[in-house]
Amino acid sequence: MKIRLYNARIMTMAEGCSLLQGEIWVENDRILYVGDGTDLDAFCKRTGIPGLAADKEIDCEGNVLMPGFKDAHTHSAMVAMRSFADDMPLQEWLNTKIFPLEAKMTEQDNYDLTQLAILEYLTTGVTSVFDMYLSPKDIARACVDMGMRCVLVSGLNKFGPALEVMEERYLTLNRMHPLISYMLGVHAEYTCSRELLEQVSEMVHKYKAPLFTHISETRTETDECLERYGMTPPQFLDSLFDYGGGGYHCVHFTEEDMDLFAKKGLHIITNPGSNTKLASGVAPITRFLEKGINVGIGTDGASSNNCLDMFREMYLACVLQKLRREDAAACPAGDLLYAACSAGARAMGLPDCDSLAPGKAADLAVIDLKRPSMRPLLAPAQNLVYSGSKDCVRLTMVGGRILYENGEFHVGDSVEHIIAEAEKYTEELIQ
Asked: What is the pTM of this model?
């Protein structure tokens, strides 16, 4: 199937946030053509395509056509805990509220609740999620059924699953479906024994695989790691893992921690909404970028953030850096737009999803510039970060499939049924 999206302001992200007036052709799950449309005959001749005829044409009406956002750290099924345990510090929140509820969750709960989260992702232009949660096979099944691209990562900790289970998931889920991939990971240093981390290290070396984890999220976490091992969490974990990956949150990094990540080419996923709501702190994003570290953005899920909104995450990430530095010029909007689209894809191991170009995955979003919040059009990229919102998302496409368009979902099951099932399980869980 060929889809033509024309009359668009195209932000390819190949060269920053510059705009190209033109059109994009999609064939099946890939981008076929990106350009102003004047060279289509030459393109057909050059590529050997006899001619282009679209099965579906979409007039973008001068709106922005860009790569979809990457929610590069989330716990999708935790939508069950939205507004369940607010206004609590992280450790108390986890130990008294979240962990006991999670112990009651079934595989079907994870499937149904992930579907609800996917609906929300689509409304905010998200085309890929980096999901760490219980029952990854069921998360993967929900994503495949609804057409969402998902990179799963293990949250292995002292409560489970068994190391052998993580290995089995690594071997099977990476072959499950083109939309699904799986990375090795642990929940955090503080939820794992040294013995367990050493066993995970052996698996990482066996497969020469990257590893991701929550790291240096709170000052308490960092201080306790120093007491246990005489090292910060990044320094301690560096003694065990050698094949890349990265960390989520990374709020309380020292200069030495940052230099370590820069030297090793490790990725950082910042979560400003969750970190501010839980009072964990403000990550030094500007300093990360100054050191050349690749920084993506994630919501951290609706339990600690309450909202799966990448526009809000970009805004918070940007303005909190200005406040932290006491410098209005710190962290320009374009840096955060790149982080939300392209840097996240790099961290997730999705090189085909980082920009709009022929041969890349057809994962894209159309942002409505006719909204009052988007006018005037003095600087569209800045508008997206500083005044954009979910209301501005007109279309979300994943793998060449239009999953959300003009407020309507195209995900197979009815929205009403997905919401009803999620509500049913939530009522059973929270009693």
From this structure: 0.95
